[in-house]
Design brief:
This is Chaperone protein HtpG. Keywords: ATP-binding, Chaperone, Cytoplasm, Nucleotide-binding, Stress response. The protein has four domains: 206 residues, 2-Layer Sandwich (Heat Shock Protein 90); 117 residues, Ribosomal Protein S5, domain 2, CATH 3.30.230.80; 125 residues, Rossmann fold (3-Layer(aba) Sandwich); 124 residues, Four Helix Bundle (Hemerythrin (Met), subunit A), CATH 1.20.120. It contains 19 helices and 22 strands. Strands 1-6-5-4-7-3-2-8-9 form a nine-stranded mixed β-sheet, covered by helices on one side. A five-stranded mixed β-sheet has the order 10-11-14-12-13, sandwiched between helices. It has a three-stranded parallel β-sheet with strand order 18-17-19. Strand 8 and strand 9 form a beta hairpin. Helix 2 packs across helix 5 and helix 8 runs parallel beside helix 10. The chain is elongated, with a radius of gyration of 35 Å. The chain starts with a strand and ends with a helix.
Length: 608
């Protein structure tokens, strides 16, 4: 029997390991199973090159729970170890980085993330164990099986033992503080989280818990549409089928495989981030992929796998890692290329998916300039009827003749609510204008960004002014009323306005236009919309009054009749009702004013 002290050149490492791993201490199972997979894969390699000439037999890795003995055993039938190898890999190599580890990370919260980075993965077992045993026999012929034991102090013992089969069994004697891990459901949950796609069969209580050949490790040519959809169901059993997917398969200048799915997303409450899982050689690492996947694609679902990303690293490490930056850029390019291909090869199908795709595309155009350059070719705007779609250049070609303002900017007219803004849309369309629908949760920000990024483009909501003024605010109109009548009408409206911040204008519009049209300043409305979303100037803008313009169509026949009424209560009520109707069309009539409008309308009908 060999006894000795583990080579640690600093203070006892075990309490430090326990401290650093405490916040995520179920990681021990991932580390030990991953080691077992490595041992198994090494044996396969030895067999493939002819060094191992024996029978491979079953290569299953088993995890066994014994509640009575309070043990968890991880057993593999891989390469195993000789006594010399145990001394080298367990007693020496595992602690070669111990001093650096302690010096660099002592007292930091994120120490758990770099355990494996220093070869300390095996020793994470002491987080939950009062004693750990290793029973191992090497694949090499005529070697003696050995047993290693340690109780969490620097002292260990190594002795010969009886073991007939090749491979390694790690036996964890669970300590009192960690008896939660003696629960079968808990162990199964951890294995399903970390090990569900490992390349070697993992069995727990005689049931295999993993799919050894998930879709992303296969070639796209080997997979059908049904295969991709079935894998999506495996990842997200209760989700609706995805729109489409992108299969990643890169081996230079970095290794990256994976499948990214575009889910159906139309409403803000459906949005769920952290649905992409990061793997390293099929071992689950994290679902926080913020630095690896571009921000605008965080809403995608699926899997990415890269052995070039270390299993256990801090987030600050990820931010500075050159491979991570390359992977991020590659994913952006692949997504842009896929969308461009879909747009070019089947535009109709692309347009049908736009309601869901548009959120990703707009978010990407706002945040990634390289994506913006590509997306300008396939970003589309749907008209309010939902039948026509335009790229920016197509809209420019179609609308520029009528919708270019005096600053030579293309004015893109848009609606955010086609029902509420219907009368404004019809008035704009009557002039030949093209009105698009921009009603998603990112459109307010998108409009502001594109006015800065697109050359000579201005967005104007269709209810920001009367139709005559939407493009150029220079409409010269002729009123049929006399100067005296106009003065009387303006006074009537001024006396009846329910809100002090309304500006009244009289214009001689077409007789078919509404008698009163209420519009809100595009600038101030945008400021208030952004304030409602919690922008940087939210408190200032939210407190500002609406800039409301009430345009009275002096040419509407109703005013000839009202002016004939003479001064009186009915005349004032009619004017007030016309003003209220216009405010109601913009959702600006509420509370007591709305109640009074209803009561007044009933009174007026009774005096007809």
């Amino acid at each position: 029997m060999q006894k000795g002290a583990i080579r640690v050149q600093t203070e006892n490492i075990f309490p430090i390991i326990k401290k650093f791993l405490y916040s995520d201490h179920d990681i021990f199972l991932r580390e030990l199973v991953s080691n077992a997979v490595d041992a198994t894969q090494k044996l396969k390699t030895l067999a493939s090159v002819g060094e191992f000439k024996g029978e491979l037999g079953s290569l299953d890795i088993t995890v066994t729970l014994d509640k009575e003995k309070k043990t968890i055993t991880i057993a593999d039938q891989g390469v195993g170890m000789t006594a010399e190898e145990v001394d080298k890999y367990i007693n020496q190599v595992a602690f070669s980085g111990a001093e650096e580890f302690v010096k660099k990370y002592k007292g930091q919260e994120n120490g758990a993330n770099i355990i494996g980075h220093f070869g300390l993965g095996f020793y994470s077992s002491f987080m939950v164990s009062g004693q750990v045993e290793i029973f191992t026999k090497s694949w090499r012929p005529d070697t003696q099986a050995v047993r290693w034991e340690c109780d969490g102090s620097p002292e260990y013992q190594l002795e010969e033992t009886e073991k007939t089969s090749r491979g390694t069994n790690i036996v964890l004697h669970i300590n009192e503080e960690s008896e939660e891990f003696l629960d079968e459901h808990r162990i199964r949950t951890i294995l399903e989280k970390f090990c569900r796609f490992l390349p070697v069969p993992i069995k727990f209580q005689d049931q295999q818990i993993n799919n050894t050949t998930p879709a992303w490790v296969k070639k796209p040519s080997e997979l059908s549409k049904e295969d991709y959809e079935n894998f999506y169901k495996e990842l997200y059993p209760f989700a609706e089928a995805p729109l489409f997917w992108i299969h990643l398969n890169v081996d230079y200048p970095f290794n990256l495989t994976g499948i990214l799915y575009f889910p159906k997303i139309t409403k803000s409450y459906e949005i769920q981030k952290d649905k992409i899982n990061l793997y390293s050689n099929q071992v689950f690492v994290t679902d926080e992929v913020k630095n690896i996947v571009p921000e605008f694609l965080m809403l995608l679902h699926g899997v990415i796998d890269s052995p070039d990303i270390p299993l256990n690293v801090s987030r600050s490490y990820l931010q500075g890692d050159p491979n991570v930056k390359k992977i991020n850029a590659h994913i952006t390019k692949k997504v842009a290329d896929k969308l461009d291909e879909m747009f070019r090869t089947d535009r109709k199908a692309f347009e049908e998916k736009w309601e869901h795709i548009g959120l990703f595309v707009k978010y990407g155009m706002m945040t990634e300039d390289k994506f913006l350059d590509k997306a300008n070719k396939f970003h589309i705007m749907g008209d309010v009827s939902g039948t026509e779609y335009y790229t920016l250049e197509e809209y420019r070609t179609t609308a520029a003749a009528l919708q270019t303002n005096k600053e030579n900017k293309l004015v893109i007219l848009y609606a955010t609510n086609t029902v509420q803004q219907d009368s404004y849309i019809k008035a704009a369309q009557a002039k030949g204008y093209k009105v698009v629908k921009l009603d998603t949760l990112v459109d307010a920000g998108f409009i502001n960004q594109m006015e800065m990024k697109w050359e000579n483009v201005q967005f104007t909501r269709v209810d920001a002014d009367i139709a005559d003024n939407l493009i150029n605010n220079e409409a010269q109109t002729q009123s049929v009323l006399s100067e005296e009548q106009e003065g009387k009408l303006k006074d009537l409206f001024g006396q009846q306005l329910p809100q002090p911040n309304i500006k009244v204008e009289l214009k001689g519009l077409n007789t078919a236009e509404q008698p009163v049209i209420v519009t809100r300043s595009e600038f101030m409305r945008r400021m208030k919309d952004m304030a409602a979303m919690g922008g940087s100037m939210s408190s200032w803008a939210a407190g500002m009054p609406d800039e409301i313009t009430m345009t009275v169509n002096a040419n509407h026949p109703i005013y000839q009749q009202i002016l004939k009424e003479g001064n009186g209560d009915r005349q004032q009520k009619q004017v007030r009702n016309l003003a209220d109707l216009a405010l109601l069309s913009q959702n600006l009539l509420t509370g007591a004013d709305l109640t009074a409008f209803v009561q007044r309308s009933v009174e007026l009908m009774g005096t007809e």
